[in-house]
Amino acid sequence: MIAARIEVKRLDDGQVSVRKGSWYDIFPEEQRLSWAEWYEGMHAHYGYDGYQTMAAALRDLSAPES
């Protein structure tokens, strides 16, 4: 089985889209770093590397241009 890769991108309306396989979520840019912190906390608590990968992908998305 091939693991689904994480896709994080900014939509035309400025919201952030996160997708892994058939799961996805869309949320405002203002929540992006909070979600990264949440995933980092989950990684620290459970040790699942996927949480750290998701946090890094969220942090790697550049801030929107003003």
List the topology elements.
Elements: E1 6-10, E2 16-20, E3 23-27, H1 32-46, H2 49-60
Antiparallel strand pairs: 1-2, 2-3
Helix pairs in contact: 1-2
Model description:
The chain is of the alpha+beta class and 66 residues long. The chain has one domain (6-60). The chain is 41% helix and 23% strand. The chain has helices at residues 32-46, 49-60, and strands at 6-10, 16-20, 23-27. It has a three-stranded antiparallel beta sheet, with helices on one face. A hairpin with a 2-residue loop joins strand 2 and strand 3 (23-27). Helix 1 runs antiparallel to helix 2. It is globular. The model has no long low-confidence stretch (mean pLDDT 93).
Can you tag this structure with a few keywords?
66 residues; alpha+beta; three-stranded antiparallel sheet; 41% helix; 23% strand; globular
Summarize, please.
Strand 1 and strand 2 (16-20) form a beta hairpin. The chain is 41% helix and 23% strand.
